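Changelog note: in this version the structure field was regenerated for every chain. One regenerated record is shown below for reference.
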Amino acid sequence: MTHQHHSPAPGAPAAGGELALALKASLTSGAGDFVTQAAGDVPAVSMSDGPHGLRLPKEQGDGGQVDLHSAAPATCFPPAVALGSSWDPQLAGRVAAAIAAEARAHGVHVVLGPGINIKRSPLCGRNFEYFSEDPLITAEVGGAMVRGLQEAGVGAALKHYAANNQETDRMRVSADIDERPLREIYLRAFERIVRRDRPWSVMSAYNAVNGVPLSENHRLLTDILRTEWGFDGVVMSDWGAVRDRVPALRAGLDLQMPGTGGRTDAEVVAAVESGELDAGTLDRSVARLALFARRATAADGTGAGEVSYEAHHELARTAAERCVVLLKNDDELLPLAPDSGTVAVIGEMARTPRFQGAGSSQVTPTRLDVPLDCLNAAADGASVTFAAGYALPGADADADADADADAAEDLVEEAERLAVGSDTVLLFLGLPAQDESEGFDRDHIDLPEAQVRLLERVVAVNPRVVVILSNGGVVRTAPWHDRVPALVEGWLLGQGGGAALAGVLFGSVNPSGRLAETIPLRLEDSPSYLSFPGEEGHVRYGEGVFVGYRGYDKRRTEVAFPFGHGLSYTTFTYSALTVLPGADGAHLDLRVRVANTGRRAGREVVQIYSRGPADSRVARPERELRGFASVELAPGEEVEVCVRVDRADLAHYSEREAKWRVEGGVHHFEAAASSRDIRLTVAVTLDGDPSRILLTGRHTLAEWLEHPVGGPLLAEAFAHGRTDGSAGAMADPVMRRFLAGIPLDVIADFPQSGVGPEDVITLSAKVAAEAAGGEPPTDADE
């Protein structure tokens, strides 16, 4: 792509003047790759990629080409894959505030992030930019980043709205999703952040949803985003996502990015002049863009202040420490004592670390902590030696294959010799950069074969092996994880990751990260396996709401490491779980006592899950995350942790009623250390939300009996029915089950029925009359 630097058009009116049609149209597309048009009293807005640090592209050469790999230095914080595992919204807010400070120092008004798409499949090549497979933790960590940016005077661009869950055919594919999973899984985090955190802008995705491209999707951009959720900001396109500018404006897309040199501006002008596009539609977008520009530039001229990149590096290191997940630690092999004899560090990734993903989010770090260097510094008395063990891709592609094989074997043999003579092995493995990136998906979740062979050879000569992983997407750890006593998930940790890993391995840091996504035993076990990434331009979200742990847990599928899992160098116990309904009825307060029963200070992440009523009318997950809180405790310390759960969060989305509904009945709440480590459970009976369905004769007997108004009316009608046989039939459980799926008007036609056709009409009218005093009911006669 090329930069297009546009100055305000000649003849632009003075501030407050009425803009000409051409100028209005120009405001709705970029003036260049990362800057909006200025016109009249509407200032230009500068934007930058930056979900985990600023990417400030520079023009290269005479052609003005942008090099995605070249940028001015900025602090590279842990990407979302790692930050999600911190389960620490406050930390995410601090990171965002630091990014905002650097943005202001560079004259950037809006940071293009955070990305809050759900990790539907472990294969998605962009999973390193997303927080979790769960919408709640996504909303809490992502929302904290929105607040951190905007409270510091820099706008957030919440992305990619919506259902952007793969890179395969990403600019054309239609995500075909039923309404319930769309609402409960893929829109839930967007809704929570839009309603609560008020992002200044939302970025529409490349893909379509149910056949309609996002850039032209009136239902998603206007009906849901603006009318339902109250969004008052700007909807901008992902870069190159607009297919037809005029219907995009009608759908609610305000800003096409990047600029097109005036080509699509002319299309807008022509559409208004011909009457194809209502002038008021363009005026609405211009008004939104003017408000957006004034919000974003409000801090201009007030002084950005001095940026302490050293302090930001320390924050990046601290954040990385919170993100490391200790998956396994048999026999308490970790932490290593500083004087723990000889330590063999094996693996090229210890010397040449991966710390971020590839694509538009790449940051040029201000500095980089290399794990091998940091381990040497942390090993006070221990002898640290190094062997590469494998080569990373990128060598001469034309090199002789036999020579490459010999060189690879030499590296493995060197690593074996080092392992044999060492007390402990720290084995660094992970995904090479070429295996995952924006722009393409993976076709497997395995480590490179050469790395697995190295692991097998090293374990065969030294059983005291700690594996440290570096990866942006989940990697399969089975079956080899059974052969290593300790396993550390290091994700991609940003520029401070090397020091963070050294701190965890040598014990100056007690790990407290928790998995924000499940690690399966096999790719084939993942809920989306049979329908990812789709075919012929469509991907069917066939698993419905059973995404991630919701699917694994419902099917009782064995996993390598469950959602929410993470170990510590100390131990915690839970006791006295209670639930107290709020006085307003809008929330529940769950309280649980947590004690540190180990010998070290540590941080515990208390997770609260819920299970819906056993007789639910809809398919429900085994459990769903409803809240979480972290607490730092000294050895022997005990505190009470309170987690508030909004009653509305217990609702499922009823497609028939087109609304959220809390089902009445017994709901179970669980205090847990993971989705499969449930410590305490308490049951609470909740009243359900009233139904808005208008019952008719086409509704089944079961639907009538389950209806809060229709059920009692029908039961009374049967009790006073025309024949004695009907009451007996309803009392017979087999007959009642036989009749349950039959429409009531069919039952009424049988002579022995307790109700007749005229009774059905009367009962339907009574249900409608009962509903008339509340919300407009739903005519669900299907």
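Spot check on this record: Residues 1-17, 60-64 have pLDDT under 50 and may be disordered. The two ends are 51 Å apart (CA to CA).
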